[in-house]
Design a protein that fits this description.
The record marks 35, 134 as: Transition state stabilizer. Its EC number is 4.6.1.12. The protein has 158 residues and is of the alpha+beta class. 29% of the residues lie in helices and 32% in strands. The protein binds the ligand Nc1ccn([C@@H]2O[C@H](COP(=O)(O)O)[C@@H](O)[C@H]2O)c(=O)n1 and 2C-methyl-D-erythritol 2,4-cyclodiphosphate. 2C-methyl-D-erythritol 2,4-cyclodiphosphate binds at residues 9, 34-36, 38, 43, 58-59, 62-64, 69, 72.
Length: 158
Amino acid sequence: MFRIGQGFDVHRFGEGRPLMIGGVEIPYEKGLLGHSDADVLLHAVADACLGAIGEGDIGRHFPDTDAAFKDADSAALLAHVFQLVKQKGYKLGNLDCTIIAQKPKMAPYIGKMRETIARILEAEIGQVNVKATTTEKLGFAGREEGIAAQAAVLLEQA
Ligand SMILES: Nc1ccn([C@@H]2O[C@H](COP(=O)(O)O)[C@@H](O)[C@H]2O)c(=O)n1
Ligand SMILES: C[C@@]1(CO)OP(=O)(O)OP(=O)(O)OC[C@H]1O
């Protein structure tokens, strides 16, 4: 038995925040705004996992009106989501993600993101793929107003 899920998220850039993407802090002049640490990639992955098990989305599990999640570590939120995946009797088949960002260059950090996500999802690095693309300076990402991320996940019965 297999279950598929997909996730999409966007966060706006803001000053004075660390840039967290895929559980990795990327040195950059600005970070992303959000109630949590605004890790747009981990949010997309969490939504893909929740979608695959029919459990709604991260806003339902971790409301942005709840002070408990203020500046939350998105790695911890994803770890909680993965506990739900396991409770439903599933494990990761594979995950494929895309970061949509004009800047900064993600390539140097992709390996560390894959390692981090694989560790959280109790999987091998080969089960986790992370890609990045610009939008050729088009749209909000192209104007460097924010970053988007997409994720597609396949879960297998454990
Ligand atoms: N923020 C980004 C965007 C892209 N990359 C890498 O560059 C390649 C070319 O990007 P295009 O948008 O011109 O297709 C892309 O395949 C990524 O390897 C990146 O590292 N960081
Ligand atoms: C993660 C949560 C909770 O801290 O806050 P944000 O960082 O604003 O992120 P978002 O992608 O809007 O999703 C759900 C939220 O409830």
